[in-house]
Amino acid sequence: MALETLNVKGMSCDHCVKAVKSGVGELSGVSSVDVNLKKGTVSVDYDETKTDHKDIVEAIDDQGYDVVS
């Protein structure tokens, strides 16, 4: 299992939280998604044999938010 925390721009409300949790949570191997609006972060606990960083970034992007370095 891996735990990755990403900085994400554009999230500002409960709808944003639900959208990101839903989009990332649908990925195979994801066991938990935690969104912190104040910090602008998304923490994902996942199985690296089933999904990877690129898939997570794409899922967040698909919801209309930007992962920043």
Keyword list:
globular; 69 residues; 2 helices; alpha+beta; 32% helix; four-stranded antiparallel sheet
Walkthrough of the structure:
The chain is built from two helices and four strands, in the order βαββαβ. The protein has 69 residues and is an alpha+beta fold. It has a four-stranded antiparallel sheet. A hairpin with a 4-residue loop joins β2 and β3. The longest helix is centred in the first third of the chain and has 12 residues.
What structural category arises from helix and sheet content? alpha+beta
Strand order of the largest sheet: 2-3-1-4
Note the gap between the termini.
22 Å
Radius of gyration: 11 Å
Largest sheet properties: 4 strands, antiparallel
What percent strand? 25-35%
Residue ranges: pLDDT <50 for 5 or more in a row?
Answer: none
Average pLDDT figure: 97
Apparent shape: globular
Number of helices: 2
Oligomer: single chain
